[in-house]
Amino acid sequence: MITITDNFLDKDTLEELENTSMMYSKVHWVGRDAKPENAFHKLVHKIFNSEPSFQDPSFGVFFWNTASIISGATAWWNIRPIDPKPHSDLISYCTSNGVDYTPDPAPTTTFIYYLKAPDKGGHLNIYTKPSKNLLNWNESETDSIAAIPNRLISFPIDYIHAVQPYSGNRVSIGVIFWNKLPTIYGKTNSDINDSYDRPWVKNENQESNRKLTEDYIGSQNVQY
């Protein structure tokens, strides 16, 4: 299921986020029990506490504030993707050198928050029906979502998606919540905020991840 929430952050937090200085080349870990250090961390906590699927219906409280199995989230800046290709986040963020490091249980959802919109283009295409050709998708098989500032979207982590060409300054933040991190990042620790290298941008992973994505799409015989 794809969800869209506009005007997600209040004005003050939005302004603080626009002025947050962090390493854009890293993937940041936001621990469940770590104190937020900036608006970027506050955004991650707000996403968690606003997501119905993280709520325990038996007690009417959020797992984040109780004995949660969620340890925290990886979050990263998308400033200017180079030649973006259709991909599955489950493959991209859990695979290195063709080896699958997906933890058990695997994360279920990708969240994308839009901070700045481009002058033209830059929609996110989410391919909601499998296709055997990554470059030839029928429009009826695609949900196209505009990058509107202060918009939060979410979709199943295994959905194939890609950013369309654009001009101008497009800034988004991706967020995935984990019980246990893939070991290619580091040790899982809910008490800290940290940062790690991005395995999905390494040259040796580009071709293998593309092939794994194609194989995954080819194995899907039913509509999502």
Question: What would your notes on this structure say?
Answer:
By secondary structure, the protein is of the alpha+beta class. The strands form 5 sheets. A 7-stranded antiparallel β-sheet has the order 1-13-9-16-5-2-17, with helices on one face. It has a 4-stranded antiparallel β-sheet with strand order 6-14-11-12. The radius of gyration is 17 Å and the shape is globular. It has a single domain (3-218), classed as q2cbj1_9rhob like domain (Jelly Rolls, Sandwich). The protein has helices spanning 11-18, 39-50, 89-92, 203-218, and strands spanning 3-5, 27-31, 55-56, 61-62, 72-78, 87-88, 95-96, 99-100, 109-116, 120-121, 124-127, 142-145, 151-156, 160-163, 166-167, 171-178, 193-196.
The number of helical elements comes to 4
Give the CA-CA distance, first to last residue: 9 Å
Sheet-strand content, in percent, reads 25-35%
- Report the radius of gyration as a whole number of Å: 17 Å
Low-pLDDT regions: 58-67, 209-224
Strand order of the largest sheet: 1-13-9-16-5-2-17
Give the CATH architecture.
Sandwich
- CATH class assignment: Mainly Beta
- Average pLDDT level: 81
The main pleated sheet reads as: 7 strands, antiparallel
- CATH topology assignment: Jelly Rolls
The computed structural class is alpha+beta
Number of E-state strands: 17
Order of helices and strands: EHEHEEEEHEEEEEEEEEEEH
Relative helix content? 10-25%
Whole-number total of structural domains: 1
